[in-house]
Amino acid sequence: SRAEPLLSVRGLTVRFGGIVALDAVGFDVARGHVCGLIGPNGAGKTTLFNCLSRLYRYQEGDILFEGRSITNLPTHGIAGLGIGRTFQNLAMFRTLSVLQNVMVGGHSRSSAGFLASALQLPQVKAEERQQRERAEEIMVFLALTPVAARPVGTLPFATQKRVELGRALAANPKLLLLDEPAAGLNHEELDDLARLIREIRDRLGVTVLLVEHHMGLVMGVSDRIVALNFGRKIADGTPAQVRDDPAVIEAYLGAP
Ligand code: ATP
Q1: Looking at this predicted complex, what is its ipTM?
Q2: CA 237, CA 141: separation in Å to the nearest integer?
Q3: Is 47 in the pocket of ligand 1 (CB under 6 A)?
Q4: Which residues contact 220 (CB under 8 A, 6 or more apart)?
Q5: I need a surface site. Which of 58, 74, 90, 189 has the fewest CB within 10 A?
Q6: Ligand 1 within 6 A of 45 CB?
Q7: Contact between residue 185 and residue 16 where contact means Cβ atoms under 8 Å apart
């Protein structure tokens, strides 16, 4: 149903040897929300993203997407469900054009389409055309049309980051995981990013889970914020509630 959370993380526990990277973490992400995930270095944010992408196994707990457990899904099953992500260190083909990179993203949603295209099956033409149209819409949305033919590696950093967003959006995700999108951006680029994240939510209807160190950005765009420290959830609420939470202030500033 529409009322059930899009994503539900329950009692998630991840250990690396003696280190408890996540300790019984639970929270929900409502459809149509931007949910911020904050916490000092080593809090467990990246580990959580890697669990959501099925890159890490968890020892305890469960992750429900649209009410169904993803625990036993293979990594490649995640995109098909509608979970897309970007990476802290951009993951693109630097010598391929912007258009090609965005189209590669479109393939990841349907492994059948990717296979058909690799095998040059007849349905490829229609599928390619659809994917190209989708890629072109996304490039308009991200103001990338003027650089569509340029190799990604030749573009300014902020533009490369928009291409990575485009690659993730081309798969038509219901949930988009953004891993530190603000890193390395200047003031003006940060404003553009904030506007884009709101538009991804409001115009594309995509739910966003945002890992971010830049407090201005995360406070400005999030409907809801979950704070982690040493693998534990220490706060969960509106930006104002989380900003004023004594446990959050202590986690960032050290002991009072
Ligand atoms: P940052 O903001 O610095 O990216 P983070 O909140 O993303 O930090 P994680 O990278 O999830 O934190 O790390 C949580 C804890 O788990 C840390 O103590 C880290 O050293 C540990 N950890 C994460 N991944 C691994 C791994 N693959 N092997 C061993 N330890 C790991």
Answers
A1: 0.95
A2: 30
A3: yes
A4: 194, 239
A5: 74
A6: yes
A7: no
